[in-house]
Amino acid sequence: MTLCEAGPGDMRFLGTITVPGVPRSAQVARAFVSGVAPDVDDEAMADIVLCVDELVANACEHTASGTGGQVTVVVSAREDILRVTVLDQGGAQGQPRVRTEICSEDGRGLFLVDALSKSWGCQPALNGTAVWAEFRAMQAVSGE
Question: Whole-angstrom Cα distance, residue 92 to residue 70?
C-alpha cells in the first residue's frame, strides 16, 4: 500500500495507537508512526517522528493525559501528505501555542512542529484537544 492509493483529496486512515500519558510513550509513538507509513523517505520521516515526539511529550506534560491518563496518535494520509493527530485528555492551560520567548529553557516543541510541518493546528476533541500536523511525505525510492 502506498500513500498515493487514496483518491485525490481523500484522507486515508493508516492507523491509531493509544499509549499511557508518560514521557517514554513518545518513543512508542515514534516507532508506531514509522511502522504505519513505511513508504515515506528517511529525511521526511526524521522530521515527522521528531514532531510526533514533541506532540506526545506536550500532551504528557501539559494536559490531564500526563496525570494517569492516555494519549492517542492517529495517522492518515492523502496524496503526498501525511497527517499525525495527537489527542490528549484536556488541561487547564488552554490551546497549544508556539512560544516566542528566546531565552526560555523549554517550550520549543511547537516551534519545531511549526518549522518542520507543512501546517499544523488544534481543535477541541472529545474531552481534550486534538493537535494535528501535516507533512509533505515523499515516497521512498525502492532499491536505494
Answer: 16
CA distance 74 to 132: 9
Q: Kindly state whether residue 141 falls inside one of the protein's structural domains.
A: no
Which residues are 71's β-sheet partners?
19
Number of domains in the chain: 1
Nearest to 21 by CA among 91, 82, 75, 83: 91
Kindly report the pTM of this predicted structure. 0.84
Q: How far is CA 114 from CA 54, 84, 97, 140, 143, in A?
A: 11, 13, 10, 24, 32
- Residue 142, domain member (yes or no): no
pLDDT tens across 32-68, in order? 999 999 889 999 999 999 999 999 999 998 899 999 9
Q: Would residue 51 count as lying in a domain?
A: yes
CA dihedral sign, ordered 91, 92, 94, 100 = negative
